[in-house]
Amino acid sequence: MSRVVHWLQHHETRVFHFVNQRIQHFFLDHFFNKITHLGGATASIAISLCFALFGQGPLRTAGIQALLALTISHIPVAIIKKKYPRLRPYLVHPQTITYKNPLTDHSFPSGHTTAIFSIIFPFVTAVPVLGLILIPLALIVGLSRIYLGLHYPSDCIVGCLIGTTASLVTVAFWG
């Protein structure tokens, strides 16, 4: 078991370094610094709340479901962050490229990735064609977390799974 865990950690670190250091570009620096905030509390709550309050029909329902999924999804995130206090990559790997105001709480799982995935699926369920935009957007937010040196790939994968599960369960029970 130890060999498998070591192998996984080694390859995850390689993927992290590739995304964080090898694909660096001026445009990507600015793009990822902006897009990453879509998974932050301010944007995810504001977007969901606006649709819940001002949306009509299925989009209003999607806004309410997104708020509920967002709330539900962050319960396991808070528990896991306390139970498995993983240091952020830039604190472990000195060569990590970071940007303004790096976070200091625990890395696992990614709250931004959880948030964006928890809010998109109610909208995709309400208007399926939105999936063509929202799913790639959520994946880009997750990638931005690695690019910015704040998360390992597994942090984002688990955040995606938690957010998606909370979202799909909310939609299933709401509808």
User: Percentage of helical residues?
Assistant: over 70%
- Give the overall pLDDT as a whole number: 93
Class per helix and strand makeup: mainly alpha
The succession of helices and strands, N to C, reads HHHHHHHH
Strand content: under 5%
**How many DSSP H or I helices?**
8
> How many strands, which pairing sense, and closed or not: the largest β-sheet?
none
Radius of gyration: 17 Å
Distance between the termini: 42 Å
Oligomer designation:
single chain
Annotation, overall tally of beta strands? 0
- Give start-end ranges of low-pLDDT stretches: none
* Overall body shape: globular
Pfam family, one: PAP2
Keywords: Cell membrane, Hydrolase, Membrane, Transmembrane, Transmembrane helix
InterPro entries: PAP2/HPO, PAP2/HPO_sf
Subcellular location: Cell membrane
What is the element layout, followed by pairings?
Blueprint: H1 2-22, H2 26-35, H3 41-54, H4 58-83, H5 89-92, H6 111-126, H7 131-147, H8 153-174
Could you explain the architecture of this structure?
With 175 residues, this protein is an all-alpha fold. The protein has helices at residues 2-22, 26-35, 41-54, 58-83, 89-92, 111-126, 131-147, 153-174. The longest helix has 26 residues, at 58-83. It is globular and about 50 Å long. The N and C termini lie far apart (42 Å). The mean pLDDT is 93.
Quick structural gist:
The chain has helices spanning 2-22, 26-35, 41-54, 58-83, 89-92, 111-126, 131-147, 153-174.
